[in-house]
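A brief tutorial aside. Many learners find it easier to grasp structure tokens once they have seen a single protein encoded end to end. The record that follows does exactly this for DNA 3'-5' helicase. Read the sequence first, then the structure, and try to relate runs of similar tokens to stretches of the chain.
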Amino acid sequence: MASLVQGNNNSLVSKIRAIDPYLKKEQEQAVEKLLLGDDVLAILPTGFGKSRIFQAYSRVKDNEMNGCSVVLVIAPLSSIIDDQITALKSSGYPATDVKFLQHEDLDRCDFKVLFSSAENVLTTKFQDHLLNRQSELHKRVCCIVVDEAHTVETWTGKRKKRMNSRRKPDDIFRCAFGKLATLRSFCREGTPVLALTGTADGMTQKTICEQLIMKTPHIINISPNRKNLRFSVQKCSKSDRHKQLDWLVELVKNVIDKSTEKIPKTIIFCNSLKDIAVVLNYLLLKLGLYAYGRSKKNTPENLVIGIFHSLSWPHCKEQIQQSIRQDGIQRINVASSALSMGVDFPNIRYVINWGPARSLIEQHQEAGRAGRDGTQFHIVICYHGNQLSKCDEDVKNFVKTEGCFRVAAYKPFDKTIAPLTVHHNCCSNCARNCSCQHNGCNIKLPFEDEVIGSEDQVSMTRVVTQEDRKDVENAFLEVFKELSSGQIWFMSWFCCHTLKFLEVLHEICDDISAIDTILEMMQDFDPFFQAEESILDMSEQYNYEFDESDSSNSLDTDEC
């Protein structure tokens, strides 16, 4: 019996290699398990070639089914879907998107790979075809693929729940990603599921498997650690954090003035529309005519800075993506997390986080845009203390560590992680202790020069006891109650925001060196500082938080 099984496995491997002889060991293993009918969770780092797994599987299975197979791929972003369809069609393999299909198209099934958003595969039209056992679609679907499978957790409220978030169930974003398991009951018995992602810690893996009802899945997990990545974490005061971009301004000016080189490609990830506007305006102000490249003609087509978020016009998104892919004019892009998944950008040199990502999974997704050509790239994280209140605990541990930033960033995903041997190429903390004298060891990187500001000139620390914290909280409660003076509108604001204010205050209490820090916080929370509009209106219009939600590209995919 054992020899028979081994013979069958060898036969499968031969079929796979006949289709694609250049698959990596892990890719080949995933295809083999799918062909045996097993569910597979593949956690493979950026640039590994996750899509080649279902492409190779589709071709082998199509041969087995005499040309009558369909692989159903659910992806979160239209940019991912468009790129995949273009790649398959260019090789002569028929692929399409569900959103373009009519009933008669689903009856004919003139495609081998069918892509869709989660929302579109859960429509009545599509489910009726898939459930009908006499339909061609039901007969042909041989595998369900969920790309960027971590969104099953991060976009459905599951991560918020296990991180003890206060997010309410009706705040859940793109709940369709939590309902994909229903597709299994519509397909033929034994149809395997392939879940693909670049980063997933143990709890995320468990959530993915539970949500997709994966039956004893075969898990392939490669460390996301990328040795050509260097972390630099810079804490600064809120009032001076703009100066953390001055090195980039000088770099742009120097490249334009003194060399024929192109400006290194850079993505600046922001957590809100307000931050995108602030960063863009600051760069334009500091660069002046340099913002328009060597021509210095202030016309939109010469602008070296672009912006990208889920509310951008589709043609603007496409222009940005093409510019990044093809070495175009726009070299610096200020973006939301909408630019952090799926799209292949070959030579990004700098990823700047204007405030830490909400989770380490998001952090690694954003870092995954850079360094795909194998050359060294830099992740530069700039933050001020009260931004951490919105982050997962592992993000707080990461940015606050006094040890290796690489180890802190990757430990939840790889227990064996260690600093790089060449310390100065590892992270900003390791670089301080490096004395290897190799090339680059003593070179001071521009984004790690000290930014001197009013609060940085004198560094003060204090030991804050729990009793001290309680006294501060009680004092502010007294202030808020005194201010209310029985006014109903203020009491409404008080109930909604005081607890959040005190939570932030508690988080940064050790770092408060002056009353100015508290006044800055008051500006974020006090309605007197919010012009003439209400708190809710301001939040909606000017300080919309992307969180995971912005990663949807929802305007592109007709999704909810």
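Self-check: The chain has 24 helices and 13 strands. If you spotted this yourself, you are ready for the next section.
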